[in-house]
Automatic annotation (TrEMBL), chain A:
Cleavable signal peptide: none
EC code: 2.5.1.60
Record's protein name: Geranylgeranyl transferase type-2 subunit beta
Keywords on record: Metal-binding, Prenyltransferase, Repeat, Transferase, Zinc
Similarity comment: family membership: Belongs to the protein prenyltransferase subunit beta family.
Cofactor note: Binds 1 zinc ion per subunit.
Keyword Lipid biosynthesis in annotation: no
GO molecular function: metal ion binding; Rab geranylgeranyltransferase activity
PANTHER family per UniProt: GERANYLGERANYL TRANSFERASE TYPE BETA SUBUNIT, GERANYLGERANYL TRANSFERASE TYPE-2 SUBUNIT BETA
UniProtKB/TrEMBL annotation, chain B:
Keywords: Prenyltransferase, Repeat, Transferase
Lineage of origin: Eukaryota, Viridiplantae, Streptophyta, Embryophyta, Tracheophyta
Function noted in UniProt: Catalyzes the transfer of a geranyl-geranyl moiety from geranyl-geranyl pyrophosphate to cysteines occuring in specific C-terminal amino acid sequences.
GO molecular function terms listed in the Swiss-Prot or TrEMBL record: Rab geranylgeranyltransferase activity
Species this chain originates from: Capsicum annuum (Capsicum pepper)
InterPro entries per the UniProt record, alphabetical: Leu-rich_rpt, LRR_dom_sf, Prenyl_trans_a
Family note: Belongs to the protein prenyltransferase subunit alpha family.
GO terms classed as biological process: endoplasmic reticulum to Golgi vesicle-mediated transport; prenylation
Listed EC numbers: 2.5.1.60
EC class (word): transferase
Pfam families hit by this protein: PPTA
Protein name: Geranylgeranyl transferase type-2 subunit alpha
Gene3D superfamilies tied to this protein: Protein prenylyltransferase (1.25.40.120), Ribonuclease Inhibitor (3.80.10.10)
Catalytic activity: geranylgeranyl diphosphate + L-cysteinyl-[protein] = S-geranylgeranyl-L-cysteinyl-[protein] + diphosphate
A cellular component term, taken from the record's GO annotations: Rab-protein geranylgeranyltransferase complex
Length: 340, 704
């Protein structure tokens, strides 16, 4: 059995962080703030956050802030909830939430709640339960959840529940592991998990584990169907648009979404954890560091994060535990929520 | 990157990438300049179009396009000219189409299209054609399905027509989960609206069962149809909410013993209840979680008890206003007379009086229960807890010898089974026939092949059948399928070891049901407790130890239990125990409880005095799976009640011990065992002593 190559992954992340001109970095330029969250959280879980120039990162993060209070994916980009959460999470990692004008940021987020309780991602009105999760989590980290109508927000998420126990992005939309993570986590943070049919959803989620030990994101996603972009649904809009691919159903990124959801509803023992650990370890690039979607594919920061965070949820020894709902290391959550 | 092989690019590839990167980089910086300077000329628009056609995920460029559209629509030369407006918007639709060709799953592109169409100037006729093209290429693309729902709403296409579309898609490929999903959404809607041809629902479901059978028999290993079948099954067993049991049970004569002692005589938990407060807990247990149990929905007739002053609380582990079991306390005033007084109590729930379930189904039947309570003439002094002896869980304290006593208690229990709560009769004929038909077909399928999900479905069908039969009042013990279901789960454990624990959990629930519904089996688990040093524990004990139980259920039949031994099982959760309001002694040692938060259900047990959680895994795990299923400072609802200051007074670190704090501050234990857990060190013990003012015995040692 292989082991987690902490040093190599740390080196890989720091290299990518510095690289700005190769093709991948250019394609992902508009979501660099998401990338920073993935990379830095991975480093923190592995106990390597000290290797990063903290002041440099924070000053760059703050330059991504727009006058409205929201953050863009990079300097000069429009503000959006997706990147606002990443900014808050990165600052929380460094224990620097106080550099924010908290009322300004929280007003931006609260201003995006709609009459029906849902949230738009930005002023252009795209509605999605991902944005409900992001708003609830962001405001919780800022201790400003009272700025929104939590009851209505929860009600909207419930209206996206499907007969298979899962959740979609809007009422009537199909269940998907990433979307389920967002909805279950939002309900967890608001203390509303009694709305979830834990046995029904738990069975749907545990059936995502396929023979290889890995997980897929939806039932019967056939190996010959390209699902590369389904996976970026949760935190980011897309990373992989350029890669035309035909991939097998199980991928490392699902390990996070399925695992964290199963943990929050206390049904994680329904999957074979040992097999999943092995699957993730097999996806490591043993030479240059980084983790890929499946064994022998090219690595990226996104999957390195989901792989390491997944191992953390699987109680892999030697790395920090991560909180399944806040998607931050448990010690960071304790610091923010319990006042250390 | 997804699906891209992990290999170093060749030099040519590297060069091509570098050229592509620098081209894209220059487009990006040109675009950002235009955007920041608010330039919306043709040249600027072309740059943004090129950028989006090569990277549809570049979200700021979609925003820019929207600003540009608004800007250009406001130009004086455009004005009210419908042609010019249309031409501006058509350009956007064309760009979206190109972007989608590049990336069919671009959120930004799909949203842009919706935004343009919502302006109301463009024809929607082309949209379904375009979609058919895309949906043919990838029938599972959920963006396309979402967009389809958007367009059909915009065009007022009736649900019936869309349902036909899902039929076509499913016939095209039985494995299309997205189509099955959309079918469940459309059908739920049509049934709710009671649309023409979709009422009564019985006929509709009979047809749907036939429809899905084609898929299941064509490819039994495909999950899509089975998930749909599970929904149909769920709809078939979903009845109006029923009152399934109560404490005290219907038709019982109970006497309160208020001197706090059982003395030497053996008392059945069915005929007497020890209390020192002259109050009686009244518990109602429903077939599913319900809301709005209160004095206006439940009427209680009893001398000296004012029904409208009773406060009902839900017994749910998470403390919400929705629960399967509800509790209130009946207070009997102190009588000065020297004789014992018997009270007749009648509890009535009328039909449709505002009780509703979490699924929106109203409490369907009017039902009532009646029982009598004898209250002794005087109340003795409050019991001195300090005199309490230590309760021992060792085997020698539990005797099976007095079978006469044990049997007499069980007669009570099974009499309870037969004395049904009085209710109006409902006809379940269609439901039972349907389940029987499905059982036959499922058996037929399994006779030809060994199919995992088919076996699981058969187990679920048999379970559903037994549940339905129990509601009809037929003595279901004679026809129950427990043994067969257990065999099916045993097979599944071997066939599909990755999901072993799912099957084990299901197995445990059925095993418990089997034990509890059979008098002879249950007798084997009943013990008479005798320990001369502790006279004040009810001597009828239910011992469900050493059964490999990973989960507990059938709680509706266990409301009477006062002493329960669940040691040496595999329990990870105590969910369900919150309804055992009479429980005074609980042993869950040697299980798999992973955290203090797993004890949350016990917080609602006011009478719990003795608790053994020794030799579990508390503190062993870095990830707490109960963290969000209990009220904690990490979730909003209870966040408000969280007072870290109060905690600091106890001199322990908040982050390390908040779990213990939130659980034990509400318990009133006199005896606790925590030894054999990773967390049990001196620090936690001293915290526990502070949190539990009445504690007498901690880990077998006297606290005084």
């Amino acid at each position: 059995m292989g082991e987690l190559l902490v040093e190599k992954h740390a080196k890989y992340i720091i290299t990518v962080e510095k690289r700005k001109d190769d093709f991948e970095s250019v394609v992902m330029e508009h979501l660099r703030l998401n990338g920073a969250y993935w990379g830095l959280t991975t480093l923190d879980i592995m106990g390597k956050l000290g290797a990063v120039e903290q002041d440099e990162v924070i000053s760059w993060v703050m330059q991504c802030q727009h006058e409205s209070g929201g953050f863009g994916g990079n300097i000069g980009h429009d503000p959006h909830l997706l990147y606002t959460l990443s900014a808050i999470q990165v600052l929380a990692l460094f224990d620097k939430l106080h550099v924010l004008d908290i009322d300004k940021v929280s007003n931006y987020i609260a201003g995006l709640q709609n009459e029906d309780g849902s949230f738009s991602g930005d002023i252009w009105g795209e509605v999605d339960t991902r944005f409900s999760y992001i708003s609830i989590l962001s405001l919780t980290l800022l201790h400003r959840l009272d700025k929104i109508d939590v009851g209505k927000a929860v009600k909207y998420i419930i209206s996206c529940k499907n007969v298979d126990g899962g959740f979609g992005c809007t009422p009537g939309a199909e269940s998907h592991a990433g979307q389920i993570f967002c909805c279950v986590a939002a309900l967890a943070i608001t203390g509303s998990l009694h709305h979830v049919d834990k046995d029904l959803l738990g069975w749907w989620l545990c059936e995502r584990q396929v023979k290889s030990g890995g997980l897929n994101g939806r039932p019967e996603k056939l190996p010959d169907v390209c699902c590369s972009c389904d996976i970026v649904i949760s935190i980011s809009k897309s990373v992989m648009s350029f890669i035309d691919s035909h991939v097998v159903a199980s991928q490392v990124c699902y390990s996070w979404w399925v695992l964290s959801s199963l943990i929050m509803i206390d049904r994680v023992h329904w999957i074979d954890k040992g097999k999943l650990v092995q699957f993730i370890l097999d996806c490591q690039d043993k030479e240059n560091g980084g983790i890929s979607d499946r064994p022998d594919d090219a690595v990226d920061v996104f999957h390195t994060y989901f792989g390491v965070a997944g191992l953390s949820l699987l109680e892999y020894p030697g790395i920090k535990p991560i909180d399944p709902a806040y998607a931050l290391p448990v010690d960071v959550v304790n610091r923010v929520m319990l006042g250390r | 990157m997804h699906g891209r092989p992990r290999k170093a690019p060749t030099q040519e590839e590297q060069e091509a990438f570098t050229i592509k990167a620098s081209k894209l980089r220059s487009l990006q910086s040109q675009f950002l300049q235009f955007h920041h300077k608010k330039v919306y000329t043709k040249e600027a628009l072309d740059v943004s179009a090129k950028l989006l056609e090569s990277n549809p995920e570049y979200y700021t460029a979609w925003n820019y396009r929207k600003i540009a559209v608004q800007h250009n629509l406001n130009l004086p030369e455009v004005g009210e000219n419908e042609e010019s407006i249309k031409s501006i918007l058509d350009e956007e639709l064309r760009l979206v189409e190109n972007a989608l060709r590049k990336n069919f799953k671009s959120y930004g592109a799909w949203h842009h299209r919706k935004w343009v169409l919502s302006k109301g100037h463009s024809s929607t006729d082309k949209e379904l054609l375009l979609l058919s093209k895309f949906q043919k290429a990838d029938s599972r693309n959920f963006h396309a399905w979402n967009y389809r729902r958007f367009v059909t709403t915009l065009k007022n296409i009736p649900d019936e027509k869309e349902l036909e579309y899902t039929t076509d898609m499913i016939y095209d490929n039985f494995s299309n989960y997205s189509a099955w999903h959309n079918r469940s959404v459309l059908l739920s809607h049509l049934l709710k609206e009671k649309a023409k041809g979709y009422s009564p629902k019985d006929n509709v479901f009979t047809e749907e069962f036939e429809f899905v059978r084609h898929a299941l028999f064509t490819d039994p290993d495909d999950q899509s149809g089975w998930f749909y079948h599970l929904w149909l099954l769920d709809q078939t067993v979903k009845l109006e909410t029923l009152l399934v049991s109560s404490w005290p049970p219907h038709g019982y004569n109970l006497s309160l013993s208020v001197d706090g002692s059982f003395g030497d005589c053996s008392l059945s938990p069915f005929t007497s209840l020890q209390t020192n407060t002259r109050t009686l807990p009244l518990i109602l247990y429903f077939s599913e979680a319900v809301e709005n149990i209160c004095s206006s929905t439940v009427e209680i007739e009893c001398e000296n008890v004012a029904s409208n002053e009773l406060v009902w609380r839900s017994l749910s582990g998470d403390g919400t206003g929705s629960a399967q079991a509800w509790l209130t306390y009946l207070n009997f005033p102190e009588e000065h007379a020297h004789s014992e007084k018997a009270y007749q109590v009648k509890v009535s729930l009328a039909r449709s009086q505002g009780i509703f379930s979490s699924t929106g189904v109203h409490h369907g039947n009017s039902s009532h229960i009646e029982f009598s309570v004898s209250v002794p003439p005087h109340c003795s002094e409050d019991v001195d807890l300090k005199k309490e002896g230590k309760i021992s869980w060792s085997d020698e304290c539990f005797s099976t010898h007095d079978t006469q006593f044990l049997e007499s208690v069980l007669v009570n229990l099974f009499h309870l089974e037969r004395t049904k709560i009085v209710e109006t009769v409902v006809d379940y004929q269609w439901n039972i026939t349907t389940i029987n038909t499905e059982i036959t077909h499922c058996r037929e399928l399994l006779s030809t092949m060994n199919c995992k999900i088919g076996k699981l479905t058969l187990a679920r069908l048999l379970k559903a059948h037994d549940t339905l039969m129990s509601y009809t009042g037929t003595s279901h013990r004679d026809v129950s399928h427990h043994a067969e279901i257990l065999q099916l789960y045993d097979d599944l454990k071997k066939m599909d070891p990755a999901h072993l624990h799912y099957y084990q959990d299901e197995y445990s629930l059925v095993l418990l049901k089997q034990i509890i519904s059979n008098q002879e089996l249950l007798l084997k688990h009943c013990r008479k407790y005798r320990d001369p040093s502790s006279p004040r524990i009810n001597n009828f004990c239910l011992r469900l130890n050493n059964l490999s139980l990973s989960r507990i259920g059938s709680m509706e039949k266990l409301l009477w239990v006062q002493v329960l031994d669940l040691s040496y099982n595999q329990l990870k959760t105590l969910e369900g125990l919150e309804v055992m309001q009479l429980l005074s002694c609980l042993n869950v040692s040697h299980n798999k409880l992973c955290s203090f938060t797993a004890l949350e259900p016990l917080k609602l047990l006011r009478s719990l005095k003795v608790l053994d959680i020794s030799y579990n895994e508390i503190g062993t795990h870095s990830i707490d799976t109960r963290r969000y299923l209990c009220s904690s400072p990490l979730n909003h609802k209870s966040g408000g009640n969280w007072k870290p200051e109060e905690f600091e007074m106890h001199g322990a670190g908040v982050a390390d011990y908040w779990e213990a704090y939130t659980i034990f501050k509400d318990l009133n234990l006199i005896q606790l065992d925590v030894i054999g857990n990773a967390v049990s060190d001196e620090k936690i013990k001293s915290l526990l002593v502070k949190l539990l003012p009445s504690i007498q015995w901690l880990d077998g040692e006297s606290c005084h």
